[in-house]
Each structure stands twice: as structure tokens, then as C-alpha cells.
Design brief:
Layout (H helix, E strand, L loop, with lengths): L1 H39 L6 H25 L12 H5 L7 H6 L2 H12 L7 H51 L1
Helix pairs in contact: 1-2, 1-6, 2-6
Keywords: Antiviral defense, Cell membrane, Membrane, Nucleotide-binding, Transmembrane, Transmembrane helix
Subcellular location: Cell membrane
Pfam families: PycTM
């Protein structure tokens, strides 16, 4: 059982590292885009772009960066309680979303059922289970925040490009 718990802890920790890397990449990408846009504002002659970039595009990218930065803080786990029922629909003891939806006691019972271990767990097994649960909650929160940050990034980019082309098209037919 200890080997199974260590494997599960390693798996959850790998997901946690992967999600942190995704946030770091999104922060770098959006940060570079913001810096490039701010530096190029003075050379833009199109009035439509001068309206869209500083008032819509840059604030949207800043919001995505702030969301990813929030995911790097200890307060990110406040996001975990949301969507609990949906995570329970797919019972998979290896999935960090399912693990985070369970209580520690329920997780211990689920792991005992899956691995055939008899309850109560030893103290080291209980501590490993508690750490797995904590890390799964953090990983789920980071996954949700990444979803929000990437959605914000793509939505603002698509919205600004669409608005620019609509303004350009409207001027062309007038």
C-alpha cells in the first residue's frame, strides 16, 4: 500500500509541476505581448487599433497574467470547492480532480477499496493520504485558474481581432 500511495503522490506532484509550468509559460507569453504592444503604441497610426489595444487588448492580457500569478500563490486553493459534484461523476482514484473532491476520510476509504487495504491506515499511510489530498486540491485549483487565464487570453485576442476587422469592414463599405 505504501508503494501505491507513493506512486499516487508522485503522480499528483507531477501534475502540479506541469500546471505550474503552464502558468509560467502563459505569464511569459502574455507578458511579452504586453511589453511589445506598449512599445509599439506610439508607432501605430490606425485609430481603431489605438482604441482597441490600450483599452481592451492590454487590460485583457493583464487580467490573464494576474490570474496566472494568483495561481502561484497559496490562496489559489480557494478555487477548489467549485464544481465538486462534476468531479465526483468520474470516480478515478488517480485523477487529481476526483481526489480533490473527496474528503480525506473518503479518499482513505476509496484507496482502501481500490488497493484492498484494510482500514484503519497506519499513521504514515494516513499522512501520505492527507498530503495527496492537499496536493490534489492545489493541482485542481491551478488547473481551473489556467483554464480561466487561457480562456481570457484567447477571448480577448479573438474579440479584438474581430472588432478590428468589423470596424475596418464597416469603414470600407461606407
Amino acid at each position: 500500500m505504501d508503494e501505491n500511495l507513493k506512486f499516487l503522490l508522485t503522480t499528483v506532484n507531477e501534475w502540479l509541476r506541469f500546471l505550474e509550468a503552464k502558468h509560467t509559460a502563459l505569464i511569459a507569453l502574455n507578458g511579452a505581448a504586453i511589453i511589445g504592444l506598449v512599445q509599439s503604441l506610439s508607432s501605430i497610426g490606425n485609430p481603431s487599433l489605438l482604441l482597441l489595444i490600450p483599452y481592451w487588448l492590454i487590460p485583457g492580457l493583464v487580467l490573464a497574467v494576474l490570474t496566472s500569478l494568483f495561481a502561484m500563490t497559496k490562496w489559489a486553493s480557494l478555487v477548489t470547492p467549485w464544481h465538486r459534484g462534476q468531479r465526483l461523476l468520474v470516480p478515478n482514484a488517480l485523477y487529481f480532480g476526483y481526489i480533490s473532491a473527496l474528503s480525506v476520510t473518503s479518499l482513505q476509504a476509496e484507496l482502501a477499496r481500490v488497493t484492498g487495504l484494510s482500514l484503519p491506515m497506519t499513521e504514515s499511510q494516513a499522512l501520505l493520504t492527507q498530503q495527496i489530498h492537499t496536493n490534489a486540491c492545489i493541482a485542481y485549483a491551478k488547473q481551473r485558474l489556467f483554464h480561466w487565464a487561457i480562456t481570457c487570453t484567447f477571448s480577448i485576442l479573438l474579440g479584438c481581432f474581430t472588432a478590428f476587422w468589423l470596424i475596418r469592414w464597416a469603414k470600407a463599405i461606407c
